[in-house]
Design a protein that fits this description.
Layout lengths: L14 E12 L2 E13 L5 E7 L2 E7 L5 H17 L7 H7 L5 E3 L2 H16 L9 H6 L17 H4 E5 L2 E4 L8 H18 L5 E5 L2 E5 L1 E5 L12 E5 L2 E6 L29 E6 L2 H14 L5 H5 L3 E5 L1
Antiparallel strand pairs: 1-2, 3-4, 4-8, 5-7, 6-7, 8-9, 9-12, 10-11, 12-13, 13-14
Helix pairs in contact: 1-6, 6-7
Length: about 325
Amino acid sequence: MGDSRVSHPLEFVLQVRMVRIVTYATRFGIVARMFDAANATVPSAHIRRARMALGTLVEIDANVADARVLESAFAAISSVEAAFSFFVPSSVLAQINRAEVGDEIELLPWQAELLREAMELERASDGCFNANLGARLIALGLRPACFDTRDVMSGLASDGLEWVDASHLRVQRRVCLDLGGFAKGAAVDAALASLAQAGAAQACVNAGGDLAVIGEREVALRAVANWRGQGARICIENEALASSVRHATNGPFHGLGGLAVLGHGGMHLPILAGGVAIRAPRCALADALTKIVLVSGDIAHPLLATHGAAAIELE
């Protein structure tokens, strides 16, 4: 997640673009290069704004008369980014990553709820989803060395962090969290909730291809192995969509030899193209489930049914 400050937000009236994002770190956070990954049609009456946030181009459109409603949605995104960015020294996540054994960290209720969900998904997935891969990502050169990770434990975040009460965490063993796409999905969810509260009956928040909608929207998926071509079209309604790849073997993707998703314990997954898209009630959940499906290798993982989600395999 990166710097969301833009002097002049753009306004569009015709099409939403989903984009496959290549990200790399700078001293300002994450910079993104964008590659078209999917398209979605949208009624022309909607107001649309787009700006850089979360390390990508974020586009919001909604059938509202007042553009300030969209500004409030972007503010919701900024709040999540400020709290859970790996790159912002003042973020709650950075405080946790700097904390020593025995330290306690106070979180706001919504921050605690988000982190609790991440830790619960770790346990429910037997570690297929792992929020404690920051040290491994630094070692692989996929994240800047923002934190001293020499005594960071391996394993899950839920192995090293203990809830003292509803809003306080105690560090039992040092961790280095990276919520990555899960936090980006949470920011999308927060923006969509802001639009819903303002009365939008049709809306879309699209953060580089991870998106959530109010109402109905048609989306065209694109497979990683043929990222220049257009794949199947699906219709989503009052739900979210997120995608991840196993190993980017074709196309202008970033990473260590195309590395895209880490397996159990931060180990590499087999070098295979393709990936998975997940439709789910919320975007953060959809993103986490992409990792669970890819790491487990189970396209029908039981947690999909548990959370009312569905997987679409991308080849």
